[in-house]
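Run log // design_07
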């Protein structure tokens, strides 16, 4: 039977008091689960990242998958977001700014071709703003002031080229958070109303059933 590769599979383990047994069992469980479900786990593409904020950091022995050692990295890309072992977003923002600056070149070219402001605005929103706001709820709230300035430079450059006003990254972040909160509240209210309706219907059926039983008992006792 052909096997399927297990892409974007993540396993998180904790090492407490230098006890690596639990972490080792987590890796073994991952390998066993992939084998049982006919999934191919490529050790060459698998990366290990250790997050340790202790002052005294001991040496960690490498882990092995099917006899192959797993590469240990300090930065990993997960679902489009770059995460470092220091939980800093500078690496992710640097890559994002570099890509958006490359797209600013095409925006300048369109400006030289005397394109309309509307077309330039659409190009910015589709190619640059979407990249700046990609997974913004995961990283923007904890980025440093220096990283925020890097994003602002891209926005200012785009506004200078197009001579139009665009929403700042901060406003985009707040709008995304508000929409997410509204969806959570809406889902929660819908769940509460559904539970209430089910409880109300169940209670009504129980009352009706109880009334019918009482009526039958009264009739049988009368005759």
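design_07 sequence
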């Amino acid at each position: 039977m052909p096997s399927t590769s297990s892409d974007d599979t993540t396993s998180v383990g904790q090492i407490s008091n230098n006890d690596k047994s639990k972490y080792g069992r987590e890796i073994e469980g991952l390998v066993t689960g992939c084998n049982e479900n006919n999934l191919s786990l490529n050790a060459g593409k698998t990366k290990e990242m250790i997050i340790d904020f202790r002052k005294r950091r001991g040496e960690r022995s490498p882990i092995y998958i099917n006899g192959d050692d797993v590469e240990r990295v300090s930065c990993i890309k997960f679902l489009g977001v770059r995460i470092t072992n220091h939980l800093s977003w500078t690496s992710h923002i640097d890559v994002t700014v570099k890509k958006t600056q490359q797209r600013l070149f095409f925006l300048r070219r369109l400006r030289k071709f005397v394109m309309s402001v509307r077309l330039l605005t659409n190009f910015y929103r589709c190619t640059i703003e979407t990249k700046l706001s990609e997974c913004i709820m995961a990283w923007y709230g904890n980025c440093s002031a220096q990283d925020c300035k890097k994003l602002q430079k891209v926005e200012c450059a785009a506004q200078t080229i197009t001579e139009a006003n665009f929403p700042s990254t901060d406003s985009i972040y707040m709008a995304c958070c508000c929409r997410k909160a509204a969806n959570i509240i809406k889902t929660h209210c819908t769940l509460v109303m559904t539970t209430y309706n089910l409880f109300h219907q169940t209670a009504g059926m129980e009352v009706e059933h109880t009334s019918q039983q009482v009526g039958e008992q009264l009739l049988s006792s009368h005759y």
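The CA atoms of residues 42 and 192 lie 44 Å apart.
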